[in-house]
Write a structure and sequence with these properties.
Strand content: 15-25%
Bound molecules: pyridoxal-5'-phosphate
Helix content: 25-40%
Radius of gyration: 18 Å
Strand order of the largest sheet: 1-9-8-5-4-2-3
Length: 214
């Protein structure tokens, strides 16, 4: 008997489901003659910030760039340490090494696959500048405990929300709880866009501390 073939991930199904709204949007953009930034970009930034309850949203090249720009805006670089989950997509780590800082891994909570707050304190040193909390597989990290610890030690909290569009903790959306969040709209993500360098965003959160255009 031949095994049935099951597609690994059919992202084309999203197009079929949203076809008429998407076709209207393409026609509007094509007819406008404006294919980069401009009104469509501004309007998306405003709508995404509003959806996340964040104060600002800035479109950048991709999710990795978003995380790198957040680290740069926080003045994090060589000699600094950033706590990252030992289990995440590689871009969380690459953002830290890209700015010349050192990723310090902390093991996840096996129930959520996200940073285990009870293990973070032992990893904090005088060089620690930030905790990068990743909301892996659409599950929110334990932000209350992570933010409390960060405030206690005077360090920043970055949310890597590339896999968590729309995830909530109670009535709060992820991406507006730490100091800033990076998102990805790569086609295979929870909320995917179209193309290789698709729309990616950095959100500066309402609760955040005055950078990225704040
Ligand atoms: C995909 C992903 C990124 C990077 O996003 P790109 O848009 O592919 O650069 C960062 N962090 C996590 C957890 C991701 O899943």
């Amino acid at each position: 008997m031949n095994a049935p073939s099951v597609p690994f991930l059919d992202i084309g199904a999203t197009y079929v489901e949203c076809k008429s709204a998407l076709d209207d949007a393409y026609q509007r953009v094509m007819a406008s003659g404006w294919y980069i930034v401009g009104n469509e970009c501004n309007s998306f930034e405003e709508q995404w910030a509003a959806y996340c309850d964040a104060a600002h949203c800035v479109g950048v090249g991709n999710g990795l760039d978003a995380l790198v720009l957040i680290l740069r805006a926080m003045d994090i670089g060589p000699g600094d340490e950033v706590i990252v989950p030992s289990s995440t997509y590689i871009a969380s780590w690459l953002a830290v090494t890209e700015v010349g800082a050192t990723p310090v891994p902390v093991e996840p909570d096996p129930r959520t696959a996200n940073l285990d707050p009870s293990r973070i304190e032992a990893a904090i040193t005088a060089r620690t500048k930030a905790i990068m909390a990743v909301h892996l597989y659409g599950q929110a990290a334990n932000m209350d405990a992570i933010v409390r610890l960060a405030r206690q030690f005077g360090i920043r909290v970055i949310e890597d929300a590339a896999q968590a569009h729309g995830a909530r903790i109670g009535d709060r959306r992820v991406g507006a709880i730490g100091d800033a969040a990076g998102w990805s709209f790569y086609p295979g993500k929870n909320l995917g866009a179209f193309g290789e360098r698709s729309r990616q965003e950095v959100c500066k959160c309402a609760s955040g501390g005055g950078f990225l255009g704040g």
